[in-house]
Amino acid sequence: MQPKSTNCATMKITPRNFIKIIIVVLVLIILNSSIHLQLLDIPDLVVVQTKTYADNSTDIPVVDDRDEVQLKKTAFTSSFCKNETNLISNNCLNYHAQQIARAFPLVPRSRWCVPSTEAGQVIKNERGEWQGLLLVKVHKAASSTTAGLVYHLYNRTGGCAIQGMHYNTLGIDSPFKPTDPNHSFLFAPIRRPSSRDLSHIKYFKLAFHWKRKKNPNWMDYKNKLHENDLTLSKGFGGYQFNYISHWRNDTDRLVSKDRVIHPAKIHNRLYDLFQRYGFFFIAERMEESIVALACVMGLPIRDIVLPSSAKIRGNESYFYKRKNQKCYRLPNFDTPRKFVEYLESSEYKRETYADQLLYVAANYSLDLTIKHTIGVARFEEALAEYRLLTKRILDYCGERIRGVCHINQTVTLPEITCYFRDFGCGYQCVNVFFAKKNN
After folding, report:
1. Which strand ranges, in their side-by-side order, compose the sheet holding 130-135?
2. Which pLDDT tens digit goes with each residue over 184-226?
3. What tens digit of pLDDT does each residue of 33-71 get?
4. How many Cβ atoms are within 10 Å of 187's Cβ, its own excluded?
5. Strands (E), 289-354
6. How far, in Å, are 306, 366, 386 from residue 280 at the CA level?
7. What is the pLDDT of residues 109-164, one digit of tens each?
8. What are the φ/ψ torsions at residue 318 (nearest 5 degrees)?
């Protein structure tokens, strides 16, 4: 006799069967929750199989192989990242950054090339909106390198309007607001927060102002970090986030040393920033950033090749003072070990939470731009060309591309070899190289 087959579509639900089903469902829910909570308890859980860019991460590969649809669907099914401790973890930084990041789109020349008669000329439309290539030059975030590149683009493009100075020197208190949506391109360099803050302290706070005989200790460093102009004492969430924001110096405290007060507000503002800006350089990935920018703007690689390191010769850093045309060697203080530990602490990560998230999201955006906007094969070809041309220019120009200060603190070349201050030093030699190459 054939056994009866069970057809789920016509199966009768008796009270006993109903109780059994409820029990099975409850068991499955408990098991699933247990497994999920165990996963979330792992400190370095990777939510998506992708790179991580949190502040203590040392490995930053080049190209992201994520599936963008997978990214959008990925989410925590618990309140894990709402927990105060977990919010600043690498896991949650990467998770939130992936929701903020975007692939920067291609920008036609007609969008950013506005005619001008001199580099740095202020160009606005009839509504008073800024036009042209607008660099928000963040202090100690490869700002001189990016400014030199922007001035070089003015040269190479035949006079497209550019702004390459710190915007506060132009008499404005927010980064080029408002901008013309049809004839402007806003971009900025971003650096790992701990590296930028340390560089800021050494250059602006110690190199020119430290008069004591003893080297600064770790509390000297920490006190300098919390001086007003660095904004940490004001609770804005980090220097870079505040500097590039059009709501700069909002009176609301977003963070404190004890907690991130308004994480949702930070997330929303960062999302808005990534929609407003057309590109972010990553200081630690400058070659990739420069090449990606050229591809996004439709520029030939030769137009963005300008190798330069104006302040550094050997292991020493120098400052050129225009007033008396002299070079000064900057003191190089050793960073106290305890201050390095502080830069890795939860307190510092809370105080710089917006900067931490900005840096991670900017890295993801570069990856997405390479993969989805440019294409990996095309990008790798352009990067190889950039590196080859850079090597050839360095071989050809030698010391003529290293800025005005010689290693013995004398002025080695006339200042005219730079576009302005220490921006784009050696550009004349680069132009000669390409002129000879054409011939």
Report:
1. 162-163, 130-135, 179-190, 279-282
2. 999 999 999 999 999 999 888 887 777 777 889 999 999 999 8
3. 443 333 333 233 333 334 666 654 433 333 333 444 343
4. 23
5. 312-313, 316-321, 326-329
6. 18, 8, 19
7. 999 999 999 999 999 999 999 999 999 999 999 998 999 999 999 999 999 999 98
8. -130, 155
CA distances from 255 to 188, 266, 362, 373, 415 (A): 23, 9, 21, 35, 43
Distance CA 354, CA 425 (A): 33
Neighbours of 320 (CB within 10 A): 19
Strand 162-163 to 279-282 pairing: unpaired
Six token digits for residue 181: 């949506």
Rg of the chain on CA atoms, in Å: 26
* d(C-alpha 217, C-alpha 230), whole Å: 19
- State both tokens at 139: 């202090």
pTM of the model: 0.81
Q: Which of 221, 142, 130, 215 is nearest to 180 (CA)?
A: 130
For residue 58, count CB atoms less than 10 angstroms from its CB and return exposed for 0-12, middle for 13-18, buried for 19 or more: exposed
Transcribe 181-198 into DSSP letters.
EEEEEEEEEE--HHHHHH
**N- to C-terminal Cα separation, the chain:** 95
Between CA 98 and CA 367 the distance in angstroms is 11
Structure tokens at 56: 């203590």
Q: Distance between CA 194 and CA 239 in Å, rounded?
A: 11
